[in-house]
Fold:
Amino acid sequence: MVGQRAKASVREMPAKIKPRSAHALFHWTAGKALFRGVQRKPLALPAEIAPVVAAVEPSRIPEGSPAIPSLEGKAVIADAVATAAQNDLTLRIIVEEIRRISARQVNYERKYVLNSVFAYVIFCVLIFLGLYFVFDLRSAKTEVDAAYYEGEFDRLSERLSIAEAELQKYREASHLAFEVYQLIEQARHQEALDRYVEVQDAIVNPAESALLQARIDSLKWKLAEEAYRDGLDLFGKENYEQARDAFFKSLAYQPETPYSNLLNYHLGTSLYELGDFEGARHHFDAALEQNLPTEFEEEARYRTAVATQEAGQTDRAYDLFERFLKRNRYHKRADDVVRRMGRIERQRLRDRAAAQKAERERALQRTEAETEASQ
Structure:
């Protein structure tokens, strides 16, 4: 019976104030059951005390109670009434205490719910703030990374453009080098050299430039030697003008060769025969500096002195003739050297006499001028 009442009490209880523990549920159910019993159902009095109660409180005597008993019965009834009153008071106190406990339990439940809601809200706020800060940090990092990768992309794009430009230069240089190679293979040597001079700076590949330079140098050596041999043939035929051009071409191809001394000697001789004494003297000097063979050396010294004399530098020519005689007193050119030195000396005497005559004339003019001035 009590279990059924407890279940009914729980069902009738509002959802928001239902106890959340077995202990609280027990107090709630017991208190409510007692309260309902006191409020709705009066206590069933024994038959022997009903008359006494009726005498005191007639309204509490149930119907059908027996008549009033004797004095002993009255004493018993009085004790029972006192006990019942005390029990009733105790029961009322218990009921009131249960009410207070129930009210506190409801307050506790409400506070628990409010605290739970408040804690949940704080938890959600903290979670939101944490997520916000994490998202903000990740956003900032993402922006920094984006700026970094954008800069890297720009730098890589610039490098790629430079690399593409360099690659294009290499392709163009390879094409130009191939053109030069083709001209060489076709024996169009002069065109190959001219084309190489035009495109030399455009060939940026070091390996390709070195290979082509070696090929051009080899070609220049070959052309220089061919031009030198052509010049010797023309020189032997006393065709000094064409020989001069051939020798100049050989020097243009390759200024320094093992035969540069002989080339300068023959070129100087060609210029000497053509009357270009200044050019002849220059190339004779170059030939003498490069250790000419003995059979050409003395002839070069002789022609150098003659070219110097013909160029009008008589004093230097006289010194060169004098050195020549000291070295080669019995050379076949010695007689001609002596005659040339004699002409230079006679010219010096004539020049000296002319200078003295001019000086005397100037002195005479000064004397006449002074005489006229004194008169």
